[in-house]
Design goal:
alpha+beta; eight-stranded mixed β-sheet; 2 helices; 8 strands; globular
């Protein structure tokens, strides 16, 4: 079974400007989720995936695809076995599950998410 991209994170050096732009240009309605500066623009009933909009930790703009995995430990084992690197160790998001960030052998940044409503 394929493990699809189910979420995208947009890292912005100016969260207010990016949020205002996406709202005005595309009708998005970003709402705080899990933290005041982590906004989520849900896709609702339309085709697409939910999008997180957050401040860039290093000031660089980027988009990060987030792949849904069944079990974080097993996914990390496969990542390492195939030459990937864990760059942010797994962390818990209360009521959502676990997340982490990896890079593939070429350095491409990818997020992983294992859903667990009991987290």
């Amino acid at each position: 079974m394929i493990q699809p991209v189910t979420y995208v994170e947009l890292n912005s050096p100016d969260l207010d400007a990016t949020s205002a732009f996406l709202s005005a240009a595309f009708g998005w309605r970003p709402q705080p989720f899990a933290a005041p500066d982590y906004l989520v623009a849900a896709h609702g009933d339309a085709a697409g995936v939910d999008t997180g909009i957050l401040p860039s930790r290093d000031g660089q703009p980027r988009a990060i695809p987030v792949i849904r995995v069944e079990a974080m430990a097993a996914a990390i084992e496969r990542v390492r076995a195939h030459g990937g690197t864990v760059v942010v160790e797994p962390f818990t998001i209360t009521g959502v599950g676990q997340g982490c960030y990896i890079t593939d052998p070429a350095g491409l940044l990818i997020g992983l998410h294992a859903y667990d409503a009991a987290a």
